[in-house]
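Task 17 of the worksheet. Students: predict the tertiary structure of the chain below and write it out as structure tokens. Keep your answer in the requested format; marks are given for formatting as well as content.
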Amino acid sequence: MNSHRRWTAAMIAVSMASLLVTACGTSSNGSGGGSQTKLQIWDFSAEQVNFHKDIAKQFTKEHPNITIEWRSITQNDYMQTLPLAFQSNQAPDMFYWNATGLSQLLDQKWIRPLNPSGTVAADFTKRWPDGSFLEGINVQDGKTYGFPFSENLYWGPGYMFLNKQVFQEAGLDVNNPPKTWTDLKNTCAQIKAKTKAQCIGAPTKGVDMQRPWFGLMGSVSTDEFFDYKTGKFDLTEAPQVKTFAFLQELKKLGYLAPGTNDKNFSRQQFAAGQSGIFFDGTWVPSVWASQGFSSDKYVVAPRVDPDEGRTGAAGRKYDGNKYWVSSQTKHPNEMWTFIQWMTDPNGYFVKQYYKSAFGTLAYVDNQKMVTDPALKQIMQIAAQPGYRVQLPVPLLKCPDIAKSKAYVNALAKNPDGEWAAMGEALTSGQSLATTGAAIVQQRQAALEEGLKQEAASGLKVSMDCYTFSDWDYTKDYTSDKYPN
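Model answer:
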């Protein structure tokens, strides 16, 4: 093991020890008027640490017998620490997780229903738009396990951020952003010629490459690694290969910041005026605000389209269920009390969340609550017809998909394989069709074989459940298209 890997392993161990020392927070003491329950919540939102401390303080003020300890670590460490916590029976009471869905979380025995009784009343679910609670998405056998936290119209990747200072130095109008791939190259040429800044602060390390990728791919076909129109994993399909070739061209021309950088380095580079353009998502304004880089120093613009025009859109999915009640909690009633408080559309959590411009919530009137200028720009962009579209949902076509593990198991094989293939192609200059062939073949074979085995066991599933040939990439796949 080299020194870097030893250091990484040591840091994960330290994080693990720190998190687990008081995990599954359950304590009682005689102070005050009686016993006090401690709830632990984990996530990786480092920029929200002070916000969470404030939330914990206010909640305990209103519920004196319950305290909240909300902990955040870096995302990469979190993805390893949380599974270890469950393995050692030291998991928190509630945790953030969006890497896998309901089916796998249930299989892993990580979660329990939101309400100790298993069901939630209408006065809770009515906080969300109709259709927010679906069997197989956040409901299983009539029991509700999750709730949409982030909404899916404004929230997501695929926005272009322009540094005002860099654009001014380059003699460019920040309010007239590049709209096409050729425009982007011309803009970069001018930034490179007239400033000391890099043009695009593009992270290209591992999964962080999703930022420039989604900033381009979302206008070509679908920004998923699976194409619901054809029923195939699509990394090596023509639109993806063409888009990645353009990213390779940007690198060759010197328009991408040099080095294999992670998202944190690239975000800081942009905030310091060392790059003029950065692709990212709805969450990044709050990250920059926490670093002292305010929204009056940049402009948000739509992602750039291919020269022939937009032929695709970013996908809207039912993936806003991000906070889950741990199966290992010893205080489900107190946890349910906090969840109801947290999701009060007019409550303290919501008001402070929007005051800090952390993003857009699924159970709130965002038009009313958003005041941050950057978030307002994001909302205006995403509200344009065809900018973000509702993806087809196999579950709504084939209800037995709720019991199927085939797709989840296919994704579990070499989880970061697509990003590794992109990294290899960007470094070597090879076509993405070449470097991505193995991961596509592996996933497709696993999905098709898994569905065949499940069908043989009696489930009504097949590849047809994942194929929607009538879908237009630029339009919502509406509910009337599903069988009655």
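Marker's comment: The chain has two domains: 3-147+321-361, 156-318+388-484. The chain has a mean pLDDT of 92.
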